[in-house]
Amino acid sequence: MPEEGRYEKLPRPESIQALQRYLSSNPVVAKTELSKPQLLIVRRTDKPDLTIFLTNVYIVGEADVYEIFAIHRELNAIVTMSAWNGYTNKAKELCRARGVGLFEFKELLGAVYHTGEKFLDYEAPDERERKARNQL
Predict the structure, then answer these.
(1) Would you state the pLDDT for residue 78?
(2) In-domain check, residue 57
(3) For the chain, how many structural domains are there in total?
(4) What is the DSSP letter of 101?
């Protein structure tokens, strides 16, 4: 059955469920709850809760970030959900300037352990390795 663009921005339900399953198995996560179709609340043990906007935008850019911020001001993070998705450096910088993390699905799984600058600047181990190789 054709999707007719339904999942162009809205994450697939199975992707949201997978993210919740992965996060729930994390020792720093007490509970996750979907408060709205694209807002995930992550209750962490011994760390502040996170309010995360979930999107399926292929490449999150500045315009997408402004659109999300216009509707949701209380965010700690924006996550693009598909394994093929990503974001621009400008979008990452814009989010960081507002104290909001911008992550791919897999990056959030590591960032959830952190707060403050370490949360905002989190990079997955494979990305850190790639950057280290490029500096050689």
Answers:
(1) 98
(2) yes
(3) 1
(4) E
Sign for the pseudo-dihedral over CA of 14, 57, 130, 91: negative
| C-alpha distances in Å from residue 120, one per residue of 3, 12, 21, 80 | 34, 25, 22, 15
Contact 39, 66 (CB under 8 A): no
Residues ≥6 apart with Cβ < 8 Å to 70: none
- Give the domain extent around 84: 13-134
H helical segments located in 48-124: 62-71, 89-97, 105-111, 116-120
25 burial type by CB count under 10 A (0-12 exposed, 13-18 middle, 19+ buried): exposed
In a domain, 8, yes or no: no
pLDDT digits (tens, 9 = 90+) for 30-57: 999 999 989 999 999 999 999 999 999 9
Distance separating alpha carbons of residues 19 and 33, to the nearest angstrom: 11
12, pLDDT greater than 80: yes
Q: Is residue 102 part of a domain?
A: yes
Amino acid, res. 81: M
Confirm whether 119 is domain-assigned.
Answer: yes
